[in-house]
Batch of 2 targets.
Target 1
Amino acid sequence: MELRHLRYFLSVAETLNFSRAAERLHIAQPALSKQIRNLEELIGAQLFTRSKHQVALTRAGEAFREQAILILEQTKRASHLARRVDSGEIGRLSIGFVGSASYSFLPWVLRAFHQQYPDVELTLREMDGPTQAISLRDGRIDIGFLRLPVTDKDIAFETIFQERFILALPSGHRLATQDLVSMYDLSEEQFIMFPERGGSGFRIQITDACQGFGFLPRIAQEAAPMQNVIGLVGAGLGISIVPESVQKIQMPEVVYRPLLEELPTAAIALAWHKKDTFNTIRIFSDVAREVARSRSTTSAGNQP
């Protein structure tokens, strides 16, 4: 039995006229009659009574009609569901992110994506950049938000969001009363820095920036994630150069000040494994790019 048998049967059951049903189905009336006889043979029951002037459903035909309608409706729903899954509109997506992304770009993307694709289940996992690269390669996450650089050749990426660096100071610090702080004033300060592995992108950027002003940062403590960095600043153990969005972490013991000199921006990259091109990744990336454009951020790099 094929679905066309059900469609033929329902057309005849609705019109109770083989000629009109054949016209509706755009097939010849003898062919339709043959298909209905074949269906009755397959089922092993007579579905219609036929006379020269009248066609009527049998009791078996009435029962079969109810189930045939349900089968075609379920088939239609199944087809629609399959298309939506194939297009990426239904499914699951596992997302890795560095903690600092949760203060800036990531919430905007998640909100926009959920509004457009509410049937995609999102799983979020906070992890540092190197761990994200490994997890993307191993398939434990599908897409990541991480800080540059990305050195794994199997990982494709694009810069999706950029923001300025600012200075985090203990509230009682001598520089806390200034509206702008110069990098030259930081040469003797103690720094709270991300560890080399977990925050290598930040650490390299900040170290390079300090060298550009003639000094190497004196590292008093290493800490991660960003909440711990700000906590140590609040404890008076040092200062830190952090992305602008981090000032959403508010503590009475910490003040944030813009830097007088222009530094390279803190960039968040969208990353995925080069071999992973299924549609949910594609539509998530499209939403992220659209959010980036609406926020007037800069996007560059490869696209899946």
Target 2
Amino acid sequence: MIKPFMPQLVYFEPKALDYPLGKRLKEKFEKLGVEIRYTTSHNQVRNLPGENDFQKYRVAKSTLVVGIRKTLTFDSSKPSAEYAIPLATGCMGHCHYCYLQTTMGSKPYIRTYVNVDEILEQAEKYIQERAPKITRFEASCTSDIVGIDHLTHSLKQAIEYFGQSEYGKLRFVTKFHHVDHLLDANHQGNTRFRFSVNADYVIKNFEPGTSPLPKRIEAARKVADADYPLGFIVAPIYLHEGWKEGYRKLFEQLEGELPMHAKKGLTFELIQHRFTKPAKRVIQKNYPMTKLELEETKRRYKWGRYGIGKYVYQQKEEEEIKTTLSSYIERLFPQATIEYFT
């Protein structure tokens, strides 16, 4: 069973200790006997233990940097939300396909930001600019925030903040089942709690270091019982031998194990597998034995945001994926909404 994340090594940036959360985390890690180091900036985190890049990468994935979020301009987060709210960066999971492989570059360590109040104040400015329209904030664009929140409670603070908001809503997605500390948060229905799910083949082959599907579903039941709006992201939808059967079993398992009340207002987001040329290079370096299919000639090139193109499935395959998965959802979850397919 996957235990809650505990870093092997923790770095503190200088001003992090000026904030109550920074002080609390330092005391916590001292009591737990975790090795603590100090750095002038996360960019100076170098010389991690390990004899080669392969080992250093794995140490980095279990290293936490506690610092301050200096850039308080939020990125767009279409199609899931208007803005990405930056509470943390990086992830302790080892999903072979993850786009963080390239956005994190040579710094795959996890960062948590202690100036949560300032981040939430900035969110409020965005909310007021758009009011009375609803403004949605995605908290898991650059991290699996649930994976570290048992240590920081930053996400819990954000949930309770948005619980008091008239025009702001929060959403995030996770592959971890460590949700118990979030169940009593005063969310007022303003936070959508989503779980990333996939066919058995994808989870077994490409998602090491994350919670198994039964644990994610068990956590989803708890979340539904705590009256959170619930959703599932099926991503990446990956073509493999028997994929139709694999995804049918996934949706049947969800339908069979979720309580009736959880199926009302349920949302699904469907994202096909894609990769970029830089991501392919990093994935093959970090996971040289991966079975992930990254053959450019089998894919269709699609221009993305910021002028970076990505390789997606051919048009005919894409249509088949969309039709097949939509039919499963419509049959098994007639009250659910498919928010988008991309």
